[in-house]
Amino acid sequence: MRIANLAERLVILDADRALDVESASSGRFSSDPQAVYARWGEFTEWAAGQDVSAGNPFDPRVLGPAVPRPPQIFAIGLNYAKHAGESGYAVPENPVVFTKFASSLTGPDVEVTLSGDTVDWEAELVVVIGHGGRDIDEGDGWNRIAGLSVGQDLSDRTVQFWGDPPQFSLGKSRAGFAPVGPAVVTLDEVESKADRDDLSVRCTLSRPDGSTEMLQDGRTRDLIFSIPALVARLSAVVELLPGDLIFTGTPEGVGIGRTPAVYLRPGEVLTTEIEGVGTIVQRFVSED
User: Could you say which of 134, 150, 196, 272 has the lowest number of CB atoms within 10 Å?
Assistant: First the structure.
């Protein structure tokens, strides 16, 4: 199942069709895309019996952030060994955790204003919590996941490295710097197409001159802290809540790790694809 936020309404997607949940359930479930996680088990049981192909055609450009108002957003830094190396850091012994503030969330096919000339890309698998809690055992980690989505941890490196030590969260929370979508894909849907523990994560840049470049090409099997491990390690400190997001980290290939460093420019288009989950697109424009 693929659930999404279509013009601020909760829908279930099937190819080019969208089934409006509030209408199809005769009001049993709210139109609010965020509210569904508090009733996740009840919702998935109901949704399993729906004919989504009976939904209406939709414009993908109207899709909003798949999870629009998460209670908490956790972002994991340096969670691939080669990315840690290109960033000049040792492989961490514990998860490196920061946040992307919720006001930075945006949809999967959007125009993003560059805040300057040091905006970087970071393709990431995003995890959505279905059943939260504290002190969750790693072996139970996958059972707490509502689904997976595609994200970009866009980063203003100037703001990120304002001081010493650096502070991450503000530089990663400009308007539009947290695109997530196009849908939240349940694990059974992912597993019908791929291995949930070994998903391809790819990021491609298209330039105004028509040239393209594969910027990142990684696999989630190379995560230092796996998804179940992140659920366990985070919940050992904080309570995970239904609808929380976890940006799980980015593979090697970011702009700041290149010599010389390379950053996004107006007119460029970034396409991020995760196997079995989906594709998101950002078109970049200048502040002017």
Answer: 134
The predicted-structure confidence for 81-94, as pLDDT tens digits, reads as follows: 999 999 999 999 99
Q: Are 84 and 255 in contact (CB under 8 A)?
A: no
Alpha helices (H) in the chain, listed in sequence order? 21-24, 40-47, 81-86, 157-160, 187-191, 227-235
Ranges of each domain in the chain: 1-63, 67-285
67-285 belongs to CATH 3.90.850.10: yes
Torsion angle of C-alpha atoms 255, 257, 261, 265, degrees rounded to 10: 10
Cβ atoms of 79 and 226 closer than 8 Å: no
DSSP 92: P
Query: Taking Cα atoms as reference points, which of 208, 213, 214, 178 lies closest to residue 268?
Result: 208
Coil, helix or strand for 47?
helix
**Residue 163's pLDDT band (boundaries 50, 70, 90)?**
confident
Alpha-carbon distance 159 to 147, whole Å?
A: 31
Q: Which of 134, 283, 270 is nearest to 203 (CA)?
A: 270
